[in-house]
Amino acid sequence: MEKLTYSEAKKELEAIVAAIESGELDVDALTEKVKRASELIAFCKEKLTKTDEELQKILDEID
Amino acid sequence: MISTQQSSVSLSELNRLVRDVIRENFPDTYWVRAETSDVRQNRNGHCYLEFIEKDPVTQVILARARGTIWANTFQMLSTFFEGETGQPFTSGLKVLVRVSVEFHEIYGFSLNVVDIDPTFTVGEMAKNRLLVLKRLEEEGVLTLNKELPLPELCNRIAVISSPTAAGYEDFCDQLAKNPYGLVFYTKLFPAIMQGEKSEPSIIAALEKIYAYRHLFDAVAIIRGGGATSELNCFDSYLLATHCAQFPLPIVVGIGHERDVTVLDIVAHTRAKTPTAVAEFFIGHLARSFTELVDLEKRLVTESREYLQQEKFKLSILSKEVYHLSTGFIRNQLASIRETAFRLKHLTNRMIQFLQQEEKQRNLRFTHAVKQRLQNEAHGLLVHEQYIRMVSPQNILKRGYTLTWKAGKIVTSAAKLQPDDVIETLFWDGKIESQVKKSKE
After folding, report:
1. ipTM for the complex shown
2. CB of B314 within 8 Å of any CB in chain A?
3. Same domain, B159 and B85
4. Distance CA B110, CA B71 (A)
5. B296: which chain A residues are within 8 Å (Cβ-Cβ)?
6. Which of B269, B288, B307 lies at the terminal end of a domain, its last residue?
7. Which of B8, B105, B307, B422 is the most exposed place for a label (fewest CB within 10 A)?
8. What is the pTM of this model?
9. Do B183 and A14 touch (CB under 8 A)?
10. In this predicted model, what pLDDT tens digit does every residue of B128-141 receive, in sequence order?
């Protein structure tokens, strides 16, 4: 998860939602996918709403 | 030496001469095309500047003249000029001015501005813009920055602004107080945003950002709004070509309403003010956020619906299993019952049949026995009759007699002698007699 970029995560998430909507998954796969999707959503939301102190520090140090 | 001294003139005399010649030969005012340079205003409101003319190709200065605009004229003209062109009267502008040619003994040659034609400047600016745009297009860079995709996660913004500008503060405030709680990272790359120095200053800032480009998603070039300000520098070819080819999307908000500068055209996105630039970034990130929330909603509803459907299918299946199995059991029971019934029926019939058989056998047996008995009885009767027929009684009845002598049966006449007493048995009684004689 750490190495994923936002757009990679988003793309994967979109693919999962599309797969679920297509109704082609079985229950076991669905459970797996929903779990993965929840992780991706949390990851993306964090990127959008949580300050990355490390990044902030790097930016502050540019002179 | 002396003659030379006698024919000499003082500087003031010379300058007066020059002044008179000029006055005489340039009695009118003249419309002059020139470029402004080094425009400044002193305490009294007088405007001093330089008029220059450059070679359009080599940019080498071909002519130069000092210029003055007296305070009362300048006040009037500058307002008029700004109103018509949308920008103040500053350096670097191509202007058409009506001047009187002056020569002052102390201050020398100068052009005193009495009127200005702003439409010329507007036209020149437009012409210049078109030329720059055409050149950018010919070089194939005009739309490069516009073609860059704005990343979905676009919240690391390199800001080019004057550090003290109110617009910069507005920009940062606007981002910080966005209503969605979105995170933005800004880094200021200070630059001069006004006047001739702005072009190299902004380019230097861009070059610095380029060195750190991996830390940013976009660049914002902003300048405080308020009064109309000088725009000429934003039509610069050099700045435009740098911006057009910059690897990060550039969003500009240089605080003007009226004209579109070359920078506005080459930038990825143009907004009117720094606040509007901030709004643009907020809007973009908010859309990403909304998309995420939508995906989440779709995920939840879809998977919930899916599970409900599965549950429903399962309940139908379990019902089916129940129905089918109870049906099966019922059928089996019915079949067993039927079999049992048939078994019973068959058994009964079998028993009946057997009983019937038995009866018939019995009947046949009885009949046979009877027959046999009858036959036997008949045989017996025949025997009896025969026996009866052959019985001594019957024989006696038919006239035969039995003869005893001394208790012994006499079967031959030769055994008897005259005078022997014999007993003769008839069927109905005995007689005693005496033999008289034997006969042959």
Report:
1. 0.91
2. no
3. no
4. 16
5. 41
6. B288
7. B8
8. 0.67
9. no
10. 889 999 999 999 99
